[in-house]
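Quick one, probably user error.
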């Protein structure tokens, strides 16, 4: 044998400014464009990858050991267990190791394949994060080809065709299609997820991309929750006779979602019912009282 033996790159991450990063592919095969963002959490990668707030984005994880506790069916944040969250891809520092956790039911690589999420490992994620922090979140395209061959014309065409998230109303893509009740509480050691038996009050949650655990936290506080679609009118919401109203998290541009959400929120404010929002919901509430959002 002569010289070094080096395997070809099986994954690419190309940013809109032409920056090209090569690594090893995991998860689904193919290519997908999205907005490249980052997350600094040390735990909860499965919850992050199923959070509808990340729809249309490629998530860079700064913590290096992603996948080491595997995946399971309990740590999914999309309300519909079978639904895709809309995440376009993930960027990791280290290769995925075999899971070491008693709750692990499946390896992260296999789980990513099932959810059609493309991944790349071997990237200096902290350097990429520093770049994003300094220059903003760029559009990018992530590609995975097990044989190392990439049809770069198709990959770059997808990147050029991606419009970015500004001006996009993604809430309509991830919201529930119909109203439903929620009474599940948070997970407890030795008990799993519990059911609220005797609610003290009633909250209507407007679903712009709600996470399961936020609804569970409301149930922990004694709230019976009714979840309604993002497009529900003030009349629809008030017909449930709520004690309070919750505006959920979600993806996309608040200004775009606000075209139909803000008039509804203003009408709800006129009722005097207590109301609060998280993430996109908080931004929409800000728009409703005369604020502006910027990226």
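Nope, works fine. Designed sequence:
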């Amino acid at each position: 044998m002569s010289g070094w033996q080096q395997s070809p790159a099986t994954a690419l991450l190309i940013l809109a400014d032409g920056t090209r990063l090569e690594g090893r592919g995991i998860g689904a095969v193919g290519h997908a464009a999205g907005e490249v963002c980052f997350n600094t959490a040390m735990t909860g990668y499965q919850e992050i990858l199923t959070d509808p707030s990340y729809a249309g984005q490629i998530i860079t994880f700064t913590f290096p050991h992603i996948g080491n506790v595997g995946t399971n069916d309990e740590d999914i944040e999309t309300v519909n267990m079978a639904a895709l969250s809309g995440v376009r891809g993930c960027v990791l520092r280290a290769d995925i190791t075999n899971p070491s956790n008693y709750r692990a039911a499946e390896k992260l690589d296999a789980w990513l394949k099932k959810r059609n999420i493309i991944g790349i490992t071997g990237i200096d994620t902290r350097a990429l994060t520093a770049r994003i922090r300094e220059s903003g979140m760029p559009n990018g395209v992530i590609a995975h080809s097990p044989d190392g061959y990439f049809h770069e014309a198709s990959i770059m065409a997808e990147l050029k065709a991606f419009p970015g998230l500004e001006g996009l109303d993604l809430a309509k893509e991830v919201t529930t299609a119909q109203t439903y009740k929620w009474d599940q509480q948070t997970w407890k050691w030795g008990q799993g997820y519990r059911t609220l038996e005797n609610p003290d009050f009633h909250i209507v949650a407007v679903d712009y991309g709600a996470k399961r655990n936020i609804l569970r936290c409301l149930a922990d506080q004694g709230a019976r929750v009714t979840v309604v679609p993002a497009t529900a009118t003030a009349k629809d919401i008030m017909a449930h006779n709520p004690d309070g109203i919750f505006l959920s998290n979600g993806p996309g541009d608040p200004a775009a979602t606000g075209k139909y959400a803000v008039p509804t929120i203003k009408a709800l404010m006129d009722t005097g019912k207590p109301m609060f929002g998280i993430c996109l919901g908080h931004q929409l509430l800000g728009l409703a009282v005369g604020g502006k959002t910027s990226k």
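The chain has a mean pLDDT of 95.
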